[in-house]
Amino acid sequence: MAIPQRVMDYLRANGVREAPVLARLRAETAKLPNAMMQIAPEQGALLQMLVRLIGARRCVEVGTFTGYSALAVALALPDDGRITACDVSEEWTQVARRYWVEAGIAGKIDLRLAPATQTLDALLAAGGAGTIDFGFIDADKTGYDAYYERLLQLLRPGGLVVFDNVLWGGSVADPADRSADTEALRALNAKLATDQRIDLCMVPVGDGFSLCRKR
Length: 215
Ligand SMILES: C[S@@+](CC[C@H](N)C(=O)[O-])C[C@H]1O[C@@H](n2cnc3c(N)ncnc32)[C@H](O)[C@@H]1O
Description:
By secondary structure, the chain is of the alpha/beta class.
């Protein structure tokens, strides 16, 4: 957080290999009023590194928007890798679908347009417990804990779930901020800090990632 712009420019120029199709999606999304919802390039690069490090093949994303994070993950997956992408917006995910087709990885992404708890419950009901290698949670903040509990069941031991926005622009460390989103993230961070079901590492990349490895 609060890294000077020239240092960020340096980091992105020297430490991130953003595929041209990801850069084009970023440029198109930048024209939307909600562009700030998209993850940063260095966050995408970290997701790709994690997916490759754990040899992920089965992934779930909660919060797809215009498709950047799902595209980044799909590009890092092997040919038989798959990601289930959860969102509720037809409008935003139409942009996503265009770029997934352009990138040639649309067949790796199963987009489910429904409240994410419904989709995660459906995956569990279909026998998906213990089958997922990698999860990424980046949707409505008050829903994070419900998504976490379901994803933890879906993950295999050694699998990873990553949360975005855990620092929430620094608001989580401001006791005067009592907004619902801030309170939800603060409560989740406190829960994760002592949750013995996982190994935890909070990383100050973008708006803050928490990496949770299922024990
Ligand atoms: C921060 S954006 C996701 C950004 C995306 N990961 C990216 O890299 O561009 C949050 C998304 O969560 C979706 N969302 C909000 N509430 C949801 C819910 N209950 N179930 C599924 N998706 C939801 C929104 O429609 C929005 O597209």
